[in-house]
Amino acid sequence: MIEKTEYSSSFGSAMFFFSLAHILFLYQLSIYRCKFLWILIIGTLLEITLIVLFHTSLFQVVLILLIVGLFLFLSSSYYVFFKE
């Protein structure tokens, strides 16, 4: 049986990055910028593909969530703060 707290910090970090990316996505929607949707589509397809390919353990799934969440946050941050 998996201990409940074994992956909770990694999963919490993944959800933190997803939440920050979501805030940036909502900001972009509020100023009528829709080009960020490509970032969201790529991130979603990447997440689905990686989970389908690498799901032998719960740690792999949580790690994929963390990587994709970080990718979405960093790419949307770049798009919001450094692109015009």
Question: Please, could you describe this protein's structure?
Answer:
This protein is 77% helix and 0% strand. The N and C termini lie far apart (50 Å). The longest helix has 25 residues, at 58-82. By secondary structure, it is an all-alpha fold. α1 runs parallel beside α3 (58-82) and α2 (37-53) runs antiparallel to α3 (58-82). The chain has a domain at 36-41 and 49-84.
Set out the fold topology.
Elements: H1 8-30, H2 37-53, H3 58-82
Helix pairs in contact: 1-3, 2-3
| Overall residue-averaged pLDDT value | 92
**Helices and strands: which structural class?**
mainly alpha
Counted beta strands: 0
Helix content: over 70%
Shape: elongated
- Give the number of helices: 3
What gyration radius follows from the Cα positions, in whole Å?
Answer: 14 Å
Distance linking N and C termini: 50 Å
- Order of SSEs: HHH
Strand percentage lies at under 5%
Low-pLDDT ranges: none
The biggest beta sheet reads:
none
Task: Name the features.
mainly alpha; single chain; 0% strand; elongated
What's this model, at a glance?
The chain is mostly helical and 84 residues long. The protein has a domain of 42 residues. It contains three helices and no strands.
